[in-house]
Design a protein that fits this description.
heterodimer; A: 309 residues; 7 strands; B: alpha/beta; 10 helices; 43% helix
């Protein structure tokens, strides 16, 4: 019993940005279910009211609504002031608001306006909320900030999303810097880097164009994240006293994608031949064994002429 | 979500130190626990104390992580005693903390450290992993160290190599077993205060030094490790595999872990540092410092 109390958030006040849809709604529920009162913010007052009503009904916690744009400093300052006024304190900030441009534009065709816009929301928005919430937290000598980054923040990829990679990569290092700087004043700053989850933002890309099976095939767990539950535990670990000595860390919640650094994309060839040492448990049922033409041909430049550039 | 009721967890190195912390955390979260280590007396005493404190079933299984047959037997015993194994905490480890310069470390000592800290981890992961893969479910938590994340001046080549090896072994096992329901993650603790090390750290002044270079300006307390292990062991981490979770007060987030030359070798030097050269541009420590110590370390820094 004592152990589970570690993850309890009773008496805490949490702000969730981007709480009008997607992860934001789920995070608001998760924090309230763990006992926190919640302040939700996003641009759309109507959607926020829906979130708030559903969280109140599910958890019975106090949930307040603060419409505002994370790219507007006056808005951010007003939201923080409102939350302090209505709740008296801020213990947790979940910097979740984010946008992405999923057209898959190659960088040499990407437009500057979109780049600036994504950086503005995904990076500057995080900074504004950290900056404006911190004075209060530092004065009280207590607080936990959780920035929602992405596995795309850990390197380049073929998803042709240069703005998003840039913004999320910067969030990882901003997280480290703030953590190091505020560590001795008891404000912890960590990030969660989700893999691919279906949300309003990613649905067109994952389901609309059939990317989901492809992503599953290159994720070691062979599935997308479950938006309803896979991020709840990580959020509570970092938000609660269970993570009291954890700061500056980016926690990947990605079914092993980051651990493989992209190298676990195809069925390994060797399992197929190693009949005297079979895999314990299930096999790659449904996947086609590696019998690529290239295996038969050998190594380019060694067994046959390398293709001309 | 963080509840471990009905689960069985095996903790290696369960005779003392952090092994006891992990075991306590898991039992408090509802798991039955099996402890293994070489010392029968310590194990049995710990098992009894833990069972009394938590009301969980706690069993003791004597074995050496470097002996293959012991590892196989321990896992078989645990499965026999508990019916299954859901969680493995690969905690057993040794560390030569004398601060010997690498050029003075014997190859035999290096090999022995790797045998326990790295091969021992693989050995238990392999034995427990087979059982977990057959059941299509399990969580393995390997205990690495902050020192496995990069080189540092806490000179200990074998420990650095072994703990870094644990991190990449964790990634490999994680991706290999991910689609068969077995998650593999690691925890990289920073410096943790315990009764075992408190006196030594305080007597040598190491504690202030470590505090001074940790962003949180303090060492960790045992209770601060509990959340991490319960989290990774439980369904709360259902989509997390292959990660190394540092629990280090922000230490590994600093860009330069090596901030200045360690004072350590001056007091505890088993042999000369080869080449006995200071860093370019640095003078040897003046005699006064060797005598009076380092400001902020052996005597208070003047207030600004």
């Amino acid at each position: 019993m004592g152990q589970l109390d570690l993850f309890d958030l009773s008496g805490k006040v949490a702000i969730v940005t981007g709480a009008s849809m997607g992860f934001g709604v789920m995070f608001a529920h998760a924090l309230a279910d763990a006992g926190a009162d919640v302040a939700v913010t996003a641009r759309s007052a109507d959607l926020l009211e829906q979130t708030a009503a559903s969280v109140r009904e599910a958890s019975g916690r106090k949930v307040t609504v603060h419409p505002g744009d994370v790219t507007s400093v006056p808005d951010v300052q007003r939201v923080i002031a409102e939350v302090l006024d209505q709740h008296g304190r801020i213990d947790i900030v979940v910097n979740n608001a984010g946008i992405s441009d999923l057209r898959g534009l190659p960088s040499e065709h990407a437009d500057h306006e979109t780049f600036r816009r994504v950086i503005d929301v995904d990076l500057m928005g995080v900074w504004y909320f950290c900056r404006e919430a911190a004075p209060h937290m530092l004065e009280r000598g207590s607080g936990s900030i959780i920035n929602i980054a992405s596995i795309l923040g850990s390197g380049g990829s073929e998803y042709n999303n240069p703005w998003y990679h840039t913004a999320k990569g910067a969030v990882l290092n901003l997280t480290r810097q703030l953590a190091v700087e505020w560590g001795d004043r008891k404000v912890r700053v960590n990030a969660i880097a989700p893999g691919f989850f279906v949300t309003e933002m990613t649905r067109p890309f994952l389901e609309g164009v059939g990317m989901a099976p492809w992503i599953e095939s290159r994720t070691p767990m062979r599935r997308l994240g479950d938006t309803t539950k896979d991020l709840v535990g990580p959020l509570l670990l970092l938000a609660s006293d269970a993570g009291a000595y954890i700061t500056g860390h980016t926690l990947f919640v990605d079914g092993g994608h980051e651990a493989s650094r992209g190298a676990w994309q195809i069925t390994p060839s060797h399992y197929y031949w190693a009949k005297d040492a079979p895999r314990v448990g299930t096999t790659y049922e449904g996947l086609v064994p590696n019998e690529f033409e290239s295996w038969k041909l050998g190594i380019p430049g060694l067994h046959y002429p390398a293709p001309e550039a | 979500m963080f509840d471990l009721s009905g689960k069985t967890a095996l903790v290696t190195g369960g005779s003392y130190g952090l092994g006891v912390v992990w075991a306590t955390a898991l039992a408090e979260a509802g798991a039955d626990v099996a402890l293994t280590a070489r010392s029968k007396d310590l194990l049995e005493a710990n098992a009894k104390a833990l069972a009394d404190a938590t009301g969980r079933k706690v069993t003791a299984h004597v074995g050496d992580v470097t002996v293959d047959a012991d590892v196989e037997r321990v896992v078989a015993e645990v499965v026999e005693a508990h019916g299954k194994l859901d969680v493995l905490v690969n905690n057993a480890g040794v560390n030569d903390a004398t601060g010997k310069p690498s050029e003075q470390v014997s190859v035999a000592d290096f090999r022995q450290c790797l045998d326990v800290d790295l091969t021992g981890v693989f050995s238990f992961a392999r034995a427990a992993g087979r059982h977990m893969l057959e059941r299509g479910s399990g969580s393995i938590v390997n205990i690495s160290s902050m020192l496995g994340l990069n080189g540092s001046e806490f000179v200990n080549p074998a420990y650095h190599a072994a703990k870094a090896g644990v991190i990449n072994l964790t990634r490999l096992l994680a991706v290999e077993w991910a689609d068969r329901g077995v998650r593999v993650n690691a925890i990289a603790p920073g410096y943790f205060m315990s009764e075992m090390v408190r006196e030594g750290l305080e007597l040598t002044g190491m504690r202030m030094w470590i505090d001074s270079r940790t962003p949180m300006r303090r060492m960790g307390e045992h209770d601060e490790l509990k959340g991490a292990v319960v989290f990774l062991a439980s369904a709360a981490a259902s989509y997390i595999t292959g990660v190394t979770l540092p629990v280090d007060g922000g230490y590994s987030s600093v860009m330069g872990m090596s901030q200045f030359k360690t004072p350590h070798p001056h007091w505890n030097r088993p042999g000369p540092i080869a080449g006995e050269k200071m860093y370019p541009g640095m003078a040897p420590l003046p005699d006064a410092i060797l005598k009076d110590g380092i400001p902020g370390f052996h005597y208070p820094i003047e207030e600004a």
